[in-house]
């Protein structure tokens, strides 16, 4: 477990459980291993088994509730948290546990419109994590393989960040990353760095050179420091005095004056798995570590501290209540060793995945974080975020100015207007939401007198909900042209024919290509750009972006159930092809379920070679590309609506 080899741990715990199914360590071990490996439904099942055993720690109820929240079972999660509070009525987190569903919904919407999240191009296919500000850019850790080899260890890289002002915030671009230091990049892992205020000293996380033992080859973590001399060269790294081979010490972060070093450690005497500590500088040495206490630390893990120049502490935790996995929190230093109740940063900083390694520049306009959320380039990726703000110019501040926003909502396939579509304007900087109804010709108009910025979206029954991400900042001088908003239908109206127009509305959320419905079925199938190798059920790596778009389509359409339909080419027997196509459909469903989609919203159906898209039947000679076109997957919306089950 300490080596993060959770699948191997599951095998060991299973053997222990078979010997004694009342063994609490075995049951809790299975629950924890499944949770940390992302298999949340299995984890929930084992936590439920653990709670049926005697002498269970109250913290198990809390963790069980967190897992239930991640699989979107709010009612059961609330029940688990209620039981936890009955056992620990004075817990610091009780205010947010009173109504966890409302609290989680608040986290999803409160800051979402004020923050723009982007995925910088310097992320590679492996993993990048834990950025730190350095001079005019950031230093981060990455797995970057040498040519022809797999990446084995993290090294440090630097990229310059280029800033340019925009009306709604700063725009970020980046120079190609370069290796930070040949001296510091060794055959061991180097990651998670902190710099002294003048950038002359670097503290970084490193694997201990000696393993725990020959039988137990785990290399725990330690913090090393190195200093730069007048020539710019770095000295040989030295360990800090509170490192120990008996536990890990990692993730350094410095206060603005460089005199207090924060870090995480699983040393004895903490509150849970890994706790946050700090040490004070005493001359050239450091004091004994001080635990940050129960307001910050929990039964879970607290990791990746960052101290903003204003003194606020940011850190990642899976023990505080959040959206899922590791979430990022903020706490204010109240002095005298006291800290304010940690504040969850909410979406989009946090997600249902692991979010950590948060940093924020001094003025608070932009920053970076690490996440393994869906849609990234690799296992872990560094994301940039910018706070949106209205331009401070006279035209935006003018009182009583009017702005005329108007447009038409169209069907993406037919090009025809959609009568009575619903249009919503959500303010990114004012506490306001405007709802409009288009008329019978799909036309809407809105006049606004305040200097606010809005994002616009449109919805209609039998059409996919897809965010129309365009920012409109109203001003007296500016008039927007007539807007054309396109929605993709998932069901045809009676007597409606499917004729796709040549010009669509631009929609980054669009997934798949619509194809003609079968027979009298009014549900529109969409072809996924997911293809398979001959006789294989697993999808190719290049299909992940397409599956990610399908995942987000389900997130924004929580009431819909989809049938995932898979097909083969004609080669092989019909029975074999039916089984192969079923395995292919199951693979897509399993991928979505692993990402958090409820299995009740998905139907996997393998049709084999029943519905070829060309003439490549048995006995017909075809090219490989023609056969490839038949090895495909489609999705369509079923007639069943499930309510908000996501």
Backbone CA Rg: 27 Å
Distance between the termini: 30 Å
Structural class: alpha+beta
What average pLDDT do the residues reach? 82
Enumerate the spans where pLDDT stays under 50 for 5 or more consecutive residues. 390-402, 500-509
Number of distinct beta strands: 36
What do we call the CATH topology of the largest domain?
Neuraminidase
The major β-sheet equals: 5 strands, antiparallel
Q: Which architecture of the largest domain would the CATH scheme give at its second level?
A: 6 Propeller
* Helix run count: 11
Measured as a percent range, the helix fraction is: 10-25%
CATH class designation of the largest domain: Mainly Beta
Please tell me about this protein's structure.
With 646 residues, the protein is an alpha+beta fold. It has 4 domains: 6-109, Serine Threonine Protein Phosphatase 5, Tetratricopeptide repeat (Alpha Horseshoe); 115-387, 6 Propeller (Neuraminidase); 394-487, Immunoglobulin-like; 513-641, OmpA-like domain (60s Ribosomal Protein L30, Chain: A, 2-Layer Sandwich). It contains 11 helices and 36 strands. A hairpin with a 5-residue loop joins strand 7 (190-195) and strand 8. The longest helix has 21 residues, at 574-594.
């Amino acid at each position: 477990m300490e080596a993060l080899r959770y699948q191997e741990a599951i095998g060991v715990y299973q053997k222990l459980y078979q010997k004694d199914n009342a063994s609490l360590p075995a049951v809790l071990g299975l629950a924890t291993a499944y949770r940390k490996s992302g298999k949340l439904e299995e984890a929930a099942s084992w936590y439920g088994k653990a709670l049926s055993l005697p002498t269970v720690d109250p913290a198990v109820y809390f963790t069980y509730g967190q897992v239930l929240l991640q699989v979107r079972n709010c009612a059961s999660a609330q029940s688990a948290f209620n039981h936890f509070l009955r056992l620990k009525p004075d817990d610091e987190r009780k205010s947010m546990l009173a109504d966890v569903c409302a609290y989680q919904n608040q986290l999803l919407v409160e800051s979402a419109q004020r923050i723009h999240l982007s995925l910088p191009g310097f992320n590679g296919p492996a993993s990048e994590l834990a950025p730190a500000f350095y001079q005019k850019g950031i230093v981060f850790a990455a797995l970057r393989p040498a040519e022809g080899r797999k990446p084995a260890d993290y090294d440090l890289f630097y990229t310059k960040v280029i800033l340019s002002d925009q009306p709604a915030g700063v725009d970020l671009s980046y120079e190609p990353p370069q290796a930070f230091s040949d001296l510091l990049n060794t055959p061991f892992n180097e990651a998670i760095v902190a710099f002294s205020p003048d950038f002359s000293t670097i503290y970084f996380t490193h694997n201990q050179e000696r393993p725990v033992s020959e039988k137990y080859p785990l290399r725990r973590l330690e913090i090393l420091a190195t200093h730069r001399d007048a020539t710019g060269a770095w000295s040989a790294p030295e360990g800090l005095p509170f490192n120990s081979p008996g536990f890990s010490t990692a993730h350094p972060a410095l206060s603005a004056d460089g005199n207090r070093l924060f870090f995480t450690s699983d040393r004895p005497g903490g509150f849970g798995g890994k706790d946050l500590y700090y040490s004070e500088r005493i001359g050239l040495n450091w004091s004994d570590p001080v635990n940050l206490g129960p307001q910050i630390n929990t039964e879970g893990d607290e990791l990746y501290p960052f101290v903003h120049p204003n003194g606020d502490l940011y850190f990642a935790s899976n023990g505080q209540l959040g959206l899922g996995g590791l979430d990022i929190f903020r706490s204010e230093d109240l002095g005298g060793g006291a800290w304010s109740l940690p504040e969850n940063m909410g979406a989009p900083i946090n997600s249902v995945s692991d979010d950590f390694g948060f940093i924020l520049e001094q003025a608070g306009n932009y920053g970076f974080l690490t996440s393994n959320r869906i849609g990234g380039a690799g296992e872990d990726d560094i994301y940039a975020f910018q706070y949106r703000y209205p331009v401070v110019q006279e035209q935006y501040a003018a009182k009583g100015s009017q702005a005329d926003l108007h447009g038409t909502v169209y069907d993406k396939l037919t090009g025809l207007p959609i009568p009575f579509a619903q249009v919503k304007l959500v303010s990114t900087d004012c506490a306001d939401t405007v709802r409009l109804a288009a008329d019978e010709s799909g036309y809407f108009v809105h006049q606004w007198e305040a200097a606010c910025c809005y994002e616009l979206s449109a919805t209609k029954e039998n059409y996919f909900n897809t965010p129309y991400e365009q920012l409109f900042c109203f001003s007296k001088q500016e008039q927007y042209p007539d807007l054309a908003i396109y929605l993709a239908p998932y069901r045809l109206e009676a007597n409606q024919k499917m004729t796709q127009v040549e010009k669509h509305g631009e929609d980054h959320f669009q997934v798949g290509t619509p194809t003609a419905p079968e027979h009298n079925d009014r549900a529109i199938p969409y072809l996924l750009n997911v293809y398979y190798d001959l006789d294989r059920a697993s999808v190719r790596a290049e299909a992940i972006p397409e599956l990610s778009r399908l995942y987000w389509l389900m997130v924004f359409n929580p009431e819909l159930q989809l049938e995932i339909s898979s097909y083969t080419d004609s080669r092989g027997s019909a029975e074999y092809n039916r089984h192969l196509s079923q395995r292919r459909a199951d693979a897509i469903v399993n991928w979505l379920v692993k990402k958090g989609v409820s299995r009740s919203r998905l139907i996997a159906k393998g049709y084999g070679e029943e519905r070829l898209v060309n003439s490549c039947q048995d006995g017909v000679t075809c090219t490989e590309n023609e056969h490839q076109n038949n090895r495909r997957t489609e999705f369509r919306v079923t007639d069943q609506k499930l309510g908000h089950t996501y």
